[in-house]
């Protein structure tokens, strides 16, 4: 397995942030609305891009669930 890092895609980063705003572990946080989490995540990602941040991502682990990693079926 390679640990080569590649730049993370903005939509993957936004998905991960939105997931973190909606869940604590695997338990849904009911006070964080799905739409507000998505809007907030996209705004954070846009700000990080404008500020020159580069977020790196490891390749996915084989044989593991994509849950919580921004998988777009």
Question: In words, what does this structure look like?
Answer:
The structure is a single chain. α1 (10-22) packs across α2. A hairpin with a 2-residue loop joins β2 and β3 (27-28). The chain is flat and about 40 Å long. It is of the alpha+beta class and 73 residues long. The protein is built from 2 helices and 4 strands, in the order βαββαβ. It has a two-stranded antiparallel ribbon with strand order 1-4. A two-stranded antiparallel ribbon has the order 2-3.
Calculate the mean pLDDT score and round it. Answer: 77
Low-confidence stretches: none
Q: What's the total helix number?
A: 2
**Structural class assignment:** alpha+beta
Helix content: 40-55%
Distance between the termini: 24 Å
List how many beta strands DSSP finds.
4
Order of helices and strands: EHEEHE
CA-based shape: flat
How big a fraction of the residues is strand? Answer: 5-15%
Strand order of the largest sheet: 1-4
Round the Cα radius of gyration to an integer and report it.
Answer: 13 Å
Biggest β-sheet strands, sense, barrel: 2 strands, antiparallel
Key traits:
73 residues; alpha+beta; two-stranded antiparallel ribbon; 4 strands; 41% helix; 11% strand
Quick take:
Helix content is 41%, strand content 11%.
SSE blueprint and pairings:
Blueprint: E1 6-7, H1 10-22, E2 23-24, E3 27-28, H2 34-50, E4 56-57
Antiparallel strand pairs: 1-4, 2-3
Helix pairs in contact: 1-2
